[in-house]
Each structure stands twice: as C-alpha cells, then as structure tokens.
C-alpha cells in the first residue's frame, strides 16, 4: 500500500473575494449595499481548506502577487495548517480578486480579475510533490495557458491517485471535445447545470451520461437558478449525482431564519459540497452518503458570510451526519 505524506493537494486559482450584499442585483440603476467584507477565496482553495478542517493533511499549488492580498492568502493557508510551499509569489502581477454581488434571494453576480493566477505555468508544478497525495483536486483557471497546464497535469498523474476536477464556466465553455482528455482521467467531476449543458449542448442528465462515457467515474451537478428558489422563508437546493451504475437526486431545504442574516450567502456552497463529497469518496462511501456529506458541508457554509467561514470540523460533520440517520 502506498504511504501518502499528504492526503489531498489542490491546484487552481486563488484570490480574495470582495463580497457586497445588496438589496437587488440590477442590470442598470442604483441600489444600497447592506453589507460588505473581504475573504480568502478560490474554488479549489476553498475545498482544500474544507478538507483540512476535517483533519486531512493538505497542500495547495497556486500563485499570488507580492502585495497585501497575497500576504493574506498565504497567512490563511498557514493558519489552516495547509502546506503552502508551492503557493508561489509572482512579483510581476497583483493577487487575483473577485467582486461578488449577493442578494437576499441567493442570486449573485461575480466579476473576476485573474491577476497572478494567469502567471502559473507547468514549470511551477512539482509533479513529484503531487504524486505523494492520495487525492489531487484541480479547479478552474482563467486563460488558455492554464487550460493547457490542466491537460498536462491530468495526463501525468499516476493512475492510483484520485483526481477530482471543478472546471468552472470558463473551462466548460471550451466544450466536451477539448475537455475529454481531462475527463477521461477524472474520478469525480463537479459542475453546475448551466456549465455542463454549455459543455455538451445537452440537458444536464444527458450531459452527465456523456461525461460518464468520456471516462468520469462520478459526476456531481448542482442544479441551476430554475431549481434554486426562495419561498415562504426557505431556500431549496438540488443536486444530481451519477456514476456508471447509480444516480440520485438530492434536495435540501434551508429555513431563512431572521436571526441569521447571512444564511443565503451561497458563495462557496458548491466548494463546500465538493469538500464533503470528496471526504466521503476517500472513505469509500456510496454516492448517496457522499452526497449527504456534501449537503451537510454546504449547509454549514451558507450559514456565514464568506466561502470558508462556516465550513465544519470533523466533529460537527459527523454529528450532523449521524443525526440524519438517527431521525430517518
């Protein structure tokens, strides 16, 4: 049996999220900002933070600028106990940033400045370092050079390493044919309804089947705006999960309690779901239990503003997981 020094390593864009809670997202006009704050972010980085909080030994590969935001991201990894020796400082660029407008219904609008993320290349990635992990989780970048980097990483990873992939909307727009070499190596694909349908030009269920036939072992699709709604003080989230032999739909309804004003901040919820699902997958649980662990993690996440603030520790996750089976 392989002896892993790190259990999970993330690779992807990392940035600072500048979040503005607004009364309404507008196409044109003016409205009031009710709350604003800045937090460390980045899809894969958020997931690795979540896995570290669950007790896994984790590392991360990425790029930041030589500036206060870069220092914030570096120190946030250090404080979480995550190995950041390959979180590289690129002096020629500013740290990446995201401006996100979030309204009370759960809708949000996001604007990305990639910054230093666009300066990471294959020479920055230590393949020997990656090869020590049980799981490598790769998330989206923002330009064509990084798209080629992702291809190279997927191709060079040893076959006994679990590989998970969150392509994001920019990579999904490349289409299934261009993504196929990565998908053929993917043990777990995490996407949303809009992106997987853009990737395949099919509805999400047919699209999921196409990804399975391309070589993905597991596909997790968070369903889009038409299936996430607020009604009578509640928000409902739906997720579709598929492997070669099984499929399941998950529905999760969260009450919007007035004393938790940030409960509908959905920023990072998908990354938190990925955290719980991957934790279950590494524990070799069936997809329904992996999905439940993902749902629990996402519920914790949306209870606090910011992608990482509400992520559960192992004790909290196990307690909520056990409560589900005790009450059902």
From TrEMBL:
The protein's name in its UniProt record: Ribokinase
Keywords: Kinase, Transferase
Pfam families attached to this UniProt entry: PfkB (PF00294)
Cited SUPFAM superfamilies: Ribokinase-like
Highest classification ranks of the organism: Bacteria, Bacillati, Chloroflexota, Dehalococcoidia, Dehalococcoidales
Keyword rRNA processing: no
GO molecular function: kinase activity
The species this protein was found in: Dehalococcoides mccartyi
Positions of the Carbohydrate kinase PfkB domain: 12-313
């Amino acid at each position: 049996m392989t002896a892993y020094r790190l259990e999970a390593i993330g690779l992807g864009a990392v940035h600072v999220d500048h979040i503005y809670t607004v009364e309404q997202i507008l196409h044109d006009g003016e409205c009031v900002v009710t709350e604003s704050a800045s937090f460390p972010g980045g899809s894969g980085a958020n997931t690795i933070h979540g896995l570290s909080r669950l007790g896994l030994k984790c590392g991360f590969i990425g790029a930041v600028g030589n500036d206060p935001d870069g220092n914030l991201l570096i120190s946030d990894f250090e404080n979480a106990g995550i190995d950041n020796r390959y979180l590289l400082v690129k002096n020629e660029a500013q740290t990446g940033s995201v401006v996100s407008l979030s309204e009370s219904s759960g809708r949000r609008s996001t604007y990305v400045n990639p910054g230093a993320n666009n300066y990471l290349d294959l020479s920055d990635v230590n393949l020997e370092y990656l090869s020590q992990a049980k799981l490598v989780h790769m998330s989206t970048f923002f330009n064509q050079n990084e798209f080629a980097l992702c291809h190279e990483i997927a191709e060079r990873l040893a076959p006994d390493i679990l590989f998970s992939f969150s392509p994001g909307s920019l990579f999904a727009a490349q289409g299934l044919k261009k993504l196929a070499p990565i998908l053929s190596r993917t043990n777990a694909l995490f996407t949303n309804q809009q992106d997987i349908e853009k990737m395949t030009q099919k509805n999400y269920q047919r699209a999921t089947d196409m990804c399975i036939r391309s070589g993905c072992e597991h596909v997790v699709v968070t369903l889009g705006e038409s299936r996430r709604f607020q009604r009578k003080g509640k928000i409902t989230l739906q997720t579709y999960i598929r492997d070669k032999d099984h499929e399941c739909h998950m529905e999760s309804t969260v009450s919007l309690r007035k004393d938790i004003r940030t409960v509908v901040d959905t920023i990072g919820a998908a990354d938190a779901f990925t955290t719980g699902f991957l934790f279950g997958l590494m524990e070799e649980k069936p997809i329904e239990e992996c999905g439940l662990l993902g749902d629990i993690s996402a519920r914790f996440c949306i209870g606090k503003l910011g992608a990482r603030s509400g992520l559960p520790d192992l004790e909290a996750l196990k307690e909520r997981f056990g409560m589900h089976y005790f009450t059902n």
